[in-house]
């Protein structure tokens, strides 16, 4: 009898242990998914703050120490001041370069930079990339978001149409297919024009879609499955 009671108690103990384990696991995961976005947001803000304040920090900190005795809060004061000073400098550059004289001066500066070996080619490539994502250059056909068959005919990837090229009398669309979650890197792919599916995505929506791994889907937009079915029915 005592043996049976021990077995029953043992089973109850295992059941209670599993219940407690599942209870802790459930709410731990719930708490983790609540805290994780906040923590990642704070991390990104700190990284941006440190990166931005680092520009003028080497110049402001000695000046602060010269006029203020070396207190524990001087470093933080210089860092915060450097952050806002950098923002003001960036805004001032943007304001100046959008004016006529500023554009002319900056254009001359870019011409000089482009003539520097290696540095000029790197700057030119990065300039095109930033113009592509910033949507500032209206003359460049970089603002069309498309779906391309990759890595096979039955799959589609989000890409940006950047131009057209004729190869062996066939028209191809030059596309830049960014990677997830970092859209600044990717692959340059030439796809037959008839295989490219156009979308209603804006560049901003497509970048958000890519960076979120497909979680943040733009509302009321043409999707790969819809395009595929329309294509099969001969509507595309």
SSE-based structural type: alpha+beta
What are the secondary-structure elements, in order, as H or E? HHHHHEEEEEHH
Average pLDDT score: 76
* Beta-strand percentage range: 15-25%
What is the number of beta strands?
A: 5
As residue ranges, the low-confidence spans are: 223-236
SS element count, helices: 7
Amino- and carboxy-terminal Cα gap: 78 Å
Global outline: flat
Helical residues, percent = 55-70%
Spatial arrangement of strands, main beta sheet: 4-3-2-1-5
Largest sheet properties: 5 strands, antiparallel
Radius of gyration: 28 Å
Structure description:
The protein is an alpha+beta fold. Among the domains are: 57-97, no CATH class; 100-134, no CATH class; 144-232, no CATH class. 58% of the residues lie in helices and 15% in strands. It has helices at 2-53, 57-67, 74-97, 100-114, 119-134, 203-211, 224-232; strands at 144-149, 156-167, 170-178, 186-192, 197-198. The chain has a five-stranded antiparallel sheet with strand order 4-3-2-1-5, with helices on one face. Strand 2 and strand 3 form a beta hairpin. Helix 1 packs across helix 3 and helix 2 crosses helix 3 (74-97).
Question: Secondary structure elements and their pairing?
Answer:
Blueprint: H1 2-53, H2 57-67, H3 74-97, H4 100-114, H5 119-134, E1 144-149, E2 156-167, E3 170-178, E4 186-192, E5 197-198, H6 203-211, H7 224-232
Antiparallel strand pairs: 1-2, 1-5, 2-3, 3-4
Helix pairs in contact: 1-3, 2-3
